[in-house]
Amino acid sequence: MTKPLIPAAAPIIGDAERRAVDAVLASGMIAQGPEVATFESEFADLIAKGTSCVAVNSGTSALHLGLLSAGIGAGDEVIVPSFTFAATANSVALAGATPVFADIDIDTFTLDPESVRQSITPLTKAIMVVHLYGLAGNIQELQAICDEHDLLLLEDAAQAHLAEYNGQQVGTFGTFGAFSLYPTKNMTSGEGGMVSSSDESLLRLVRVYRNQGMEKRYENEVIGFNYRMTDVHAAIGRAQLQQVEGWTNTRRDNAATLDAGLQGVVTPLVPEGRKHVYHQYTVRIADATADERDQVATALRDEHGIASGVYYPVPNHRLPSLQHFAVELELPVTEKAAAECLSLPVHPKLSAEDLDRVIAGVNEVVKAGA
């Protein structure tokens, strides 16, 4: 008998979300309205008192408008990792600036401060740290570099809702933070994003940019966008906010079980002072080629009914859309991670039996050499 597939990700949408959407539809106010405003306030309360938030229609929009509102544009360079989803660098390019790719720390998959230092030029305006897979980047060292060179620290927290660095939540360190609310994230609004900041003047600009460049109707101040979130999406997000802390604790418990049971792979490192939220539970198959890693993923699926993911097989600096920003650039640690990384199921829907099957399957496949 074929075992049912254990999915790599499993969005949770329940009765609370359905009731919330039905209430919005019954109200007749479907576009941006009171649900969005309340969601913004509640999300800000979740990540930190004293922080405010603006909701938009995607995590990419959050990055784009955060950059524009921070004054990033033509002639500026922003240092970013290449080992991340393309939206990070895309948003910089969309703002008219140049993404400059730096290497990562192999243990945390986040920006390597020394590589960042080597990437600074007279045109550098900001460093964008990506809290990849749900683990905070090296905030302390990156902030020190920003202070030394008078740069802005920006946070791509798309995968890191509730992640912490030295007791402080991500999205509250930089000039702004950007969160994604895509269906596979640790919480969702169906689709959406959130900009967080303690700078009210920056957030006012985000609100203007998201609404066709106007705060007051027909008084357009800048050339803007339609990046608004609907009340339907905000209603889903509000329902998810009530559950995300419990889901996060389950992800951490599941990760601890995987840590204890997996053999033959490098499990995620969590440096002292950081709290991981395990958007992805990403292991490394040490010294594997990309083909060998892919063979492991295929064997897990075909022989054990375990889905997995590869995030990210092609680094940004080698993508056809972005490689012109990085001619002849070599990022050896990024290339190593792209070949070795495999993300295993860690989501809250996993049962104890599922976790046992993941552990047994990985151990067997890796020991056999796929």
In whole angstroms, the N-to-C terminal distance is 22 Å
Q: Biggest sheet, open or closed, and with what strands and sense? A: 7 strands, mixed
Give the beta-strand count: 12
Poorly predicted ranges (pLDDT <50, ≥5 residues)?
A: none
Task: Determine the number of helices (DSSP H or I, runs of at least 4 residues).
Answer: 12
Shape: globular
Q: Which sequence of SSEs, written as H and E, runs from N to C?
A: HHEHEHEHEHEEEEEHHHEEHHEH
Strand arrangement, major sheet: 1-9-8-5-4-2-3
Radius of gyration: 21 Å
Average pLDDT works out at: 96
Q: How helical, in percent, are the residues?
A: 25-40%
Percent strand: 5-15%
Could you say which structural class the secondary elements and strand pairing correspond to? alpha/beta
Q: Which second-level CATH architecture of the largest domain applies?
A: 3-Layer(aba) Sandwich
Structural domain tally: 2
CATH homologous superfamily grouping of the largest domain? Type I PLP-dependent aspartate aminotransferase-like (Major domain)
* CATH domain class of the largest domain: Alpha Beta
CATH topology name of the largest domain, in short, is Aspartate Aminotransferase, domain 2
